[in-house]
Amino acid sequence: DMEMMLNRLVPETIPFKHSCEGPDDMPAHAKACLLGSNLTLPICDGRVTLGTWQGVWLCEHRDRAGPRKVLVTVNGVIRDPIRTPQSPASPMGGSVNDFYPSLRIMNRL
């Protein structure tokens, strides 16, 4: 359904001026502008927190595209297990020192 709607919004039959890389090149640029080229995902307790009907789509708008790369950048902070204890079921339930041995968290009273 999404591909059909994108093709209706930006058909390849429009006589684009920029067509030196093929008839699907400029429509691919326009579709990428509509969808964007980056995404921020919230992560809580080591899991992506999306809604019930939400998902992540990787879209290729060229008919014969070359290989692509995905870059993932993680921003955030390490939880201090003393100030914000993890739940026993959490995948990050171990000590921060288990994951980052060079980081020392001192026990507090």
Keywords:
109 residues, 4% strand, 2 strands, 21% helix
N-to-C series of helices and strands: HHEEH
Q: Please tell me the overall pLDDT.
A: 77
Rg, nearest Å: 22 Å
Q: Which structural class do you get from the secondary structure elements?
A: mainly alpha
Strand order of the largest sheet: 1-2
Individual helix count: 3
Low-confidence stretches: 99-109
- The tally of beta strands, per DSSP, is 2
Helix content: 10-25%
Shape category:
elongated
Percent strand: under 5%
Main β sheet profile: 2 strands, antiparallel
**N-end to C-end Cα span:** 58 Å
What's a quick, concise take on this entry?
It is built from 3 helices and 2 strands, in the order ααββα.
Q: If you had to describe this structure to a student in words, what would you say it looks like?
A:
- It is a single chain.
- With 109 residues, the chain is mainly α.
- It is 21% helix and 4% strand.
- The protein is built from three helices and two strands, in the order ααββα.
- It has helices at 2-9, 25-35, 96-99; strands at residues 43-44, 47-48.
- A hairpin with a 2-residue loop joins strand 1 (43-44) and strand 2.
- The chain is elongated, with a radius of gyration of 22 Å.
